């Protein structure tokens, strides 16, 4: 996969917000936190992820470039909250009460579990499968598992096995 270069000004905006949120957390929790390593290697439709043991935040460069400030304001605190919740409380539910506390009370950001950014530019091929009651969109990974005989997907509503209908780009 070809890597996407994030403009320096955008990287600086990310780090500026990261540092502001760390100061905010340090004041509230009366503790100094190290600056996480921020990389731009997240792929697919996921906006970001937190590597807890490595104290690292991975951001999706394409979604960052497309959504800039909204991305920085939403995704960065979301991932930082995962790191801070792990640091403060240990292993907890990914979007549980501890994470929500860090998001809403400490970082003063709405605790949204998922982003609402358009993912059209980063979405892989989708394969349409159907059952008795509706159509289902499966990823290329799910489709390939079916082709290799490693998986069989069943509709949760009608219980019928999914059958390939067509491919969407």
UniProtKB/TrEMBL annotation:
Residue positions of the active site: 79
HAMAP family: SprT (MF_00746)
Binding site for Zn(2+): 78, 82
TM ranges: none
An annotated Gene Ontology molecular function: metallopeptidase activity
Organism annotation: Xenorhabdus lircayensis
Taxonomic superkingdom: Bacteria
Cofactor mode of binding and number, as noted: Binds 1 zinc ion.
Keywords annotated in UniProt: Cytoplasm, Hydrolase, Metal-binding, Metalloprotease, Protease, Zinc
Intracellular or extracellular location(s): Cytoplasm
UniProt keyword Glycoprotein present: no
Pfam families xref list: SprT-like (PF10263), Zn_ribbon_SprT (PF17283)
Cofactor: Zn(2+)
Name of protein: Protein SprT
Listed SMART domains: SprT
PANTHER family, per database record: PROTEIN SPRT (PTHR38773:SF1)
InterPro entries in the cross-refs: SprT-like_domain, SprT_Zn_ribbon, Uncharacterised_SprT
Family: Belongs to the SprT family.
Major subcellular site: cytoplasm
Domain SprT-like span(s) in chain numbering: 16-165
């Amino acid at each position: 996969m070809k890597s996407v270069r994030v403009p320096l000004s955008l990287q600086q905006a990310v780090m500026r917000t990261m540092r502001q949120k760390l100061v905010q957390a340090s004041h509230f929790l009366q503790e100094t936190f190290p600056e996480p390593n921020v990389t731009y290697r997240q792929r697919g439709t996921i906006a970001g992820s937190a590597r807890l043991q490595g104290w690292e935040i991975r951001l999706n460069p394409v979604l960052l470039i497309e959504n800039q400030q909204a991305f920085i304001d939403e995704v960065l605190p979301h991932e930082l909250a995962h790191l801070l919740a792990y640091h403060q409380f240990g292993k907890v539910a990914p979007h549980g009460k501890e994470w929500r506390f860090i998001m809403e009370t400490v970082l003063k950001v709405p605790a949204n579990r998922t982003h609402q950014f358009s993912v059209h530019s980063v979405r892989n091929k989708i394969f349409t499968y159907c059952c008795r009651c509706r159509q289902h969109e499966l990823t290329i990974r799910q489709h390939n598992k079916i082709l290799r005989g490693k998986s069989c997907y069943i509709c949760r509503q009608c219980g019928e096995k999914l059958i390939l209908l067509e491919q969407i780009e």
